[in-house]
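Table S5 (text form). Sequence records supplied for joint modeling of the two-component complex.
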Amino acid sequence: MRPVGILGGMGPEATILLQRKLVDAVPARDDAGHIPLMIDMNPQVPSRIAHLIEGTGESPAPVLAAMAARLEAMGATAMAMPCNTAHHYAGAIRGAARIPFLDMVALSAAACAGADGGRVGMLASPAVRRTALFERAFAAHGLEAVWPDDDAGVLASIRAIKAGGASEAAAAGLREASAHLAEAGMRVQLVACTEFSLAVELLPDGVDARDTLDALVAAIVAHATAPVEGRLPLG
Amino acid sequence: MRPVGILGGMGPEATILLQRKLVDAVPARDDAGHIPLMIDMNPQVPSRIAHLIEGTGESPAPVLAAMAARLEAMGATAMAMPCNTAHHYAGAIRGAARIPFLDMVALSAAACAGADGGRVGMLASPAVRRTALFERAFAAHGLEAVWPDDDAGVLASIRAIKAGGASEAAAAGLREASAHLAEAGMRVQLVACTEFSLAVELLPDGVDARDTLDALVAAIVAHATAPVEGRLPLG
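The corresponding structure-token record, covering 470 residues in total, follows.
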């Protein structure tokens, strides 16, 4: 199988969840059946929220570019990054390495194609909203991103999950945002913050939640197990 | 904090559990409070069991040495490997890099010092038994390793956990070995196979289980958070 490089640590829990989903995604009978990964678990990447919302922090772009170059040097054959907000800096990542970047935002937009009425409720960081990351990706699929009213509640939920894990209390802001979107007719909702991927089971009933992390998992499995030099996908 | 390199993928579940324990081990209020890791998740490292027990496989030593050199080149300041059996090849790992190797076997032996009567029940791979890895490490602490009778049952349990996770059924051989050791007077038992670290909660009541993975976690936290160049431990 072909090793995939992971720009990780944003946050560590989400990077662990990605690995857990990749283990579950392949029919392995022993260690060797699992996907090789090179993971740069770097929780010290400058805060995306501080840079994009508060305007107080430095840009994460140079750090992410250095991580990408290092993963390519280690032998990674593609890159993936389990953090939606950090995809704002995808240009710097692509510019730093020749291997393909498996773009979670583009992959997730494709996974939402055909949603009821072309409208998708967004469960994401206000930083993602501000960068219009998904609006641009949705355009290619005729989709419209619909956002919850309460940015503050969503942001508080992200910070609470980063600080203490995905508890009912930490996910309160997420649940409220999801409920409001459902009331507004958004049955299809995109979990577009990997902290929220940790709390998917806490979403209100009846919501058709599509998880950006699952779209990334599918792309990593497809890349890693693609036949190369005559080897079998799981060989 | 100082990044630690992980020689991982033996198996992937154990490498994920190490990360989970490291996240829980630090009092982080945000991503930046967590320990930076460079993880070579390489499930294709040649089987230690095939090489040491069946005599059919190639030696994992060259692959492990290459992983160590690569982690050092990436900027890791120390190395750790969440697989007890693979510590048989620690010499090749140490020889391939200048950064320190946090030796889980030596750390675990120290954690068992003072065990009742100096005897420790071993919950480990028959491959570890054959290499006398722990007998050598225990000697420095006046400890004696006591092994279960049924190697086959223990090995079957390791393979079942690698294949399908730590279910009650998969852990049957482990539970039986632990019960027999307890009947033989071994209250202190060392979980010295990281597949068994995934099943610690399935051990019989009354056993004082010491997990080799916990000894490694403590050493990684101590190394990563040690003050460097005037920075605060969690700075």
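Note: The CA atoms of residues 118 and 143 of chain A lie 5 Å apart.
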